[in-house]
Write a sequence for this structure.
């Protein structure tokens, strides 16, 4: 503290450090003052110990000095002790304070200890002026520093018994016992926390072991499910193909002309087999993705080639004159290097849904270059649209949104969930913009160059961790 600080301070008392027992007296006075200004027991011990260590340093290493006590009115108000000696100074004080140097005689240990025990600490040292160390402890918030309070405290200190080294040693012993008891309590608390942590660690290890077992079990279940669906696909596809072929032969007049009633029945039979075949295929594809067994076959192709393949698929079913399917001219786009069949499968699902849920107008398919080396495929329709409340529902497998059109046009409820998972498998994603009564725009965003990823990164259970714009699944 400088001159400005001293102008807001009230001097209490001074102890000269000429003899050994003056060090004890300085400690006693520090403890008495701390008691009178209502420090708690621990802060009384901290302040008295810090003053004692600094006073001992001044007497032992510098040949004497003095301790000045005062109240700094702050704010905040503090009880301050300044220990000034007449020695040659401390040559490496900065190193001592930074903890980089401790002398073989122990010089520096007391200074560092006092620094840790005080709320405020400063030190200066020079060969001509000796060493001055100042420490301060904040007064308790409930203490009001008034002239009356200071006079009462000083009166109590003055009325105390003369210095008795034995009594002071007893007081120090009691403080040491209290400190040891406090440390013992802390050690017991530490041991208890360590025991709780050990039990928690054992619980965590047991949980990890259980999760590992469940992961193995789920992997086995996925494998069995995939195998079952694969076998089911094989067993069902053969009779379905037979029924479909017979229906085609009958519709072509192989067994002679058909009545209108027979033709409608056979067409219904063929449509049912087609729907069942699509369901089995989509289900098998989803199971393969979940099991991590879907292979990505990278090919180089152009969007024009993709448009040509899609036109060939949908040309036979463009029988509704009220709805037109339009493929927009392809702008200059780079060559794609990804799985062409999976990209076509995603877009087929988009277009098929758009055609089913558009009663009049058009379905428009477009492609353009996106940001960060991506291609954006869009399928826009003028159909019934999707309400905001149904965006999450249509992510679910087999989920379908109730509507008059939905009741007339049946679907598997797997097409768009499969499209989204295939898109993520290829490093892309699916989003949608939709308004009820005005149609929807489904967008497939894909990287131009497919990069193989960790299979776990493409797992279908990562949906909760993905940022969602407005994503969509199957209708």
């Amino acid at each position: 503290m400088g001159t400005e600080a001293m102008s807001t301070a009230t001097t209490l008392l001074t102890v000269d450090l000429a003899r050994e027992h003056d060090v004890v007296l300085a400690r006693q006075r520090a403890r008495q003052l701390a008691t009178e200004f209502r420090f708690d027991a621990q802060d009384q011990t901290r302040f008295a110990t810090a003053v004692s260590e600094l006073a001992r340093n001044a007497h032992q290493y510098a040949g004497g000095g003095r301790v000045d006590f005062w109240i700094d009115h702050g704010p905040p108000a503090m009880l301050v002790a300044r220990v000034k000696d007449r020695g040659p100074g401390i040559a490496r004080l900065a190193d001592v304070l930074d903890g980089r140097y401790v002398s073989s005689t122990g010089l520096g240990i007391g200074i560092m200890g006092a620094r840790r025990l005080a709320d405020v600490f400063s030190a200066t040292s020079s060969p001509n002026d000796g060493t001055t160390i100042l420490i301060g402890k904040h007064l308790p918030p409930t203490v009001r520093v008034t002239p009356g309070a200071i006079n009462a405290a000083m009166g109590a200190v003055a009325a105390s018994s003369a210095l008795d080294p034995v009594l002071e040693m007893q007081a120090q012993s009691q403080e040491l016992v209290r400190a040891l008891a406090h440390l013992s309590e802390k050690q017991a608390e530490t041991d208890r926390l360590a025991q709780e942590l050990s039990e928690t660690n054992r619980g965590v290890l047991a949980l990890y072991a259980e999760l590992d077992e469940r992961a193995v079990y789920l992997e086995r279940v996925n494998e069995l499910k995939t195998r079952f669906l694969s076998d089911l696909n094989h067993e069902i596809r053969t009779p379905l193909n037979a029924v479909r072929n017979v229906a085609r032969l009958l519709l072509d007049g192989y067994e002679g002309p058909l009545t209108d009633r027979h033709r409608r029945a056979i067409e219904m039979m063929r449509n049912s087999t087609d729907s069942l075949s699509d369901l089995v295929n989509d289900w098998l594809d989803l199971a393969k993705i979940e099991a991590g067994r879907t292979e990505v076959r990278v090919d180089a192709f152009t969007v024009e080639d993709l448009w040509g393949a899609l036109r060939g698929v949908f040309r036979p079913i463009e029988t509704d004159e009220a709805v037109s399917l339009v493929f927009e001219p392809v702008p200059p786009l780079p060559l794609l290097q990804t799985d062409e069949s999976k990209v076509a499968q995603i877009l087929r699902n988009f277009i098929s849904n758009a055609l089913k849920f558009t009663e009049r107008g058009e379905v428009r398919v477009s492609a353009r270059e996106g940001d960060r080396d991506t291609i954006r495929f869009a399928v826009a329709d003028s159909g019934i649209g999707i309400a905001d409340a149904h965006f999450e529902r249509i992510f679910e497998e087999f989920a379908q949104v109730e509507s008059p059109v939905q009741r007339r046009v049946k679907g598997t409820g797997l097409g768009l969930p499969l499209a989204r998972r295939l898109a993520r498998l290829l490093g892309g994603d699916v989003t949608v913009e939709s308004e009820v009564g005005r149609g929807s725009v489904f967008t497939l965003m894909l990287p131009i160059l497919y990069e193989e990823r960790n299979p776990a990164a493409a797992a279908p259970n990562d949906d909760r961790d993905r940022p969602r714009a407005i994503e969509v699944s199957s209708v």
In short: The first helix runs from residue 3 to 6. Residues 1-7, 455-475 have pLDDT under 50 and may be disordered.
